[in-house]
Amino acid sequence: MGALGHVTPQTQRFDAPLPLRSGAQLPGYELVYETYGTLNAARSNAVLVCHALNASHHVAGTYAGQDKSEGWWDNLVGPGKPLDTDKFFVIGINNLGSCFGSTGPMHMHPATGRPWGADFPVVTVEDWVDAQARLLDVLGIDRLAAVLGGSLGGMQALSWTLRHGQRVGECVAVATAPNLSAQNIAFNEVARRAIITDPDFHGGHFYAHGVVPQRGLRVARMIGHITYLSDDSMEEKFGRQMRAAELGYSTQDIEFQIESYLRYQGDKFSTYFDANTYLLITRALDYFDPAAAFGGDLSAAFAAARGKRFTVVSFTTDWRFSPARSREIVKALVDNRIDVSYAEIAAPHGHDAFLLEDPRYHGVLRATFDRIARQVQR
């Protein structure tokens, strides 16, 4: 398998306001994106990859002059890889509200000349999908061969079939859910409270104070990271390993290796991720619930996706987006006589499995995209 090599982000400006589900509008905005591969003459081989909470448009490839700059799904996307860029034109778009280039809380509010901060409007999965559709219009892509996403990205992929179904050939939804459980919403709320109660948060306008609520971000990341791992993977990697040969009998110092690991992850995250972005994206997760408009009937919600094809993948040890949630999606699709393939991968890695190079998982996606490639009009 080859490597994509160096890639370059692009930026598209939109002057027309974007209507949001909240009833608000986002004035002129920018979307940052990357593309890999070549769009064919029929413009029929495009695949949109939707990103999860702390990822971005940088799906694959590397940046010139930067070490360890591989895209977050570089093991999946590239020449000869399961999503083969010799066959497909792959697009990664950074969502609105992010801190990785697209318009978000760190950008200037056009009416005030100051950073949006907490005044940035609440955005939803549906808003992101509508913004992505506008970018595809600019790129001259009327229809996607497929839309692919994992976790929160999988929610976006599902939403594409419900909001712009005529523009999607196939949906590939990995390690995702039709909505968040109460437990998941609870985890998000604890993480948000850690940020909001940080003295350096200043009601979301911390930019003006020249500070960053790093303490809150650290705790939020630690909470989130625990939910992405399985008990088995944490046990295998860390167990009860100690930092020192003997107990320190301290309630505040690091004693166990797992504590050291979580603090490292929290420290790293707090240096590059925006606190307001974290609040926005976790709220978008909370709000996603396509069945809500149908009295909680998921089968009724997916009636709008008839005529599409779906591939749904879950992982046995993923307790944040468990296989049971994927099976809810599959049942709703089957109820509508929608063509769906389902793979439940026995993997020990928890929710993070969707980012890893498991040969069975990659085998499923390779077979899926090989089939799509044979159907694409040249």
From TrEMBL:
Top-level taxon: Bacteria
Keyword Acyltransferase belongs to the record: yes
Domain AB hydrolase-1 intervals: 45-357
EC number assigned by the record: 2.3.1.46
Binding site for substrate: 221, 352
InterPro entries according to UniProt: AB_hydrolase_1, AB_hydrolase_fold, HAT_MetX-like
Record's GO cellular component terms: cytoplasm
Pfam families: Abhydrolase_1
Active site: 151, 318, 351
Keywords: Acyltransferase, Amino-acid biosynthesis, Cytoplasm, Methionine biosynthesis, Transferase
Cell compartment(s), UniProt: Cytoplasm
Primary location: cytoplasm
Site keyed Important for acyl-CoA specificity: positions: 320
Coiled coil (residue ranges): none
GO molecular function, one term: homoserine O-succinyltransferase activity
Known catalytic reactions: L-homoserine + succinyl-CoA = O-succinyl-L-homoserine + CoA
Pathway: Amino-acid biosynthesis; L-methionine biosynthesis via de novo pathway; O-succinyl-L-homoserine from L-homoserine: step 1/1
HAMAP family to which the protein is assigned, alphabetical: MetX_acyltransf
Function: Transfers a succinyl group from succinyl-CoA to L-homoserine, forming succinyl-L-homoserine.
Protein family (similarity comment): Belongs to the AB hydrolase superfamily. MetX family.
Subunit structure: Homodimer.
Protein name as it appears in the record: Homoserine O-succinyltransferase
Native source species: Pseudaquabacterium pictum
Designated gene of the protein: metX
